[in-house]
Design brief:
The chain is of the alpha+beta class. The strands form four sheets. The chain has a five-stranded mixed beta sheet, with helices on one face. A three-stranded antiparallel beta sheet has the order 2-1-5. The protein has a two-stranded antiparallel ribbon with strand order 3-4. A hairpin with a 3-residue loop joins strand 3 and strand 4. Helix 1 packs antiparallel against helix 6. The chain is elongated and about 95 Å long.
Length: 253
């Protein structure tokens, strides 16, 4: 009986040790004590891309002008979930603006787009001011996070930590050194691998997340909590139950 108990104990302890995740793998900044100089922040203003949704408001001292340009049916094509109406940038990088027609805004910043729209309006109205902002920005966060899903944000872009925070953070079985970022760049789909445990990540060109990015948190080599049908608890319960049955039936180890 002692041999049986010893065998069962060894199996249980072995499983427990295998399932443990080292603290180092759960930390974000393992090298924080080695950082002596501030990290250069690569943040640049996002350029407008096809399929972006833009909120464009025309400010004028003439109430009729404001009503015409700010209540047009053209704006409603890009209507967002938050009730803010906007313009959808088409695949050619144009927006269809009332009276003016197509205005190419692709590869411009929001301030540059505002200036271009203002110039285009001078043939119709004068003394206007234009406001351009992004609306309905979305990213997808999947893998070893607390809440997988599609999330909206209003900023030009988020950093990688803020983006993962939208999904409730990484689970204890998420690999912080193996984050995959999927991004559409023109006609190409790019894949980037990020290491969140490295304090120098802020110097990375893809530190900031853009609309329509997909973030995939890969699992550690340990048992992943994502696979609910094959969890560690299920496996452990099955093994201990099997051992108990074998001991009860008198099978010798």
């Amino acid at each position: 009986m002692k041999v049986r108990n010893y065998t069962a104990g060894v199996i249980f302890i072995s499983l427990f040790v295998v399932s443990c995740v080292p603290t180092r793998q759960l930390k974000y900044f393992n090298d924080i004590n080695n950082v002596e100089e501030p990290v250069i922040n690569p943040r640049t203003q996002k350029m407008i891309m096809p399929f972006d949704k833009l909120f464009i408001k025309v400010l004028s001292i003439d109430p009729q002008t404001s009503q015409i340009f700010n209540s047009s049916e053209e704006m409603r094509y890009g209507s967002g979930n938050n009730g803010v109406i906007g313009y959808l940038v088409d695949e050619s990088g144009n927006i269809n603006f009332p009276f003016v027609g197509n205005i190419k805004v692709v590869s411009l910043t929001t301030s540059q787009a505002a200036e271009k729209i203002q110039v285009a309006l001078t043939d119709y109205v004068t003394n206007t001011s234009i406001i351009v902002k992004y609306i309905d920005n979305q990213i997808t966060v999947i893998g070893e996070v607390q809440r997988q899903g599609i999330y909206s944000f209003t900023q030009d872009k988020l950093n990688i930590y803020e983006a993962i925070g939208l999904g409730g953070g990484i689970t204890r079985y998420g690999d912080r050194k193996n984050i995959i970022l999927v991004r559409n760049q023109g006609d190409k789909i790019m894949h980037f691998r990020l290491n969140l445990s490295n304090s120098m990540i802020a110097d990375n060109a893809v530190y900031y997340i853009l609309p329509n990015d997909v973030i995939v948190v890969e699992p550690l080599k340990a048992v992943s909590s994502s696979y609910s049908n094959i969890t560690f608890t299920t496996v452990l319960t099955s093994i201990t139950t099997l051992i108990a049955v074998l001991l009860f039936t008198g099978v010798k180890f």
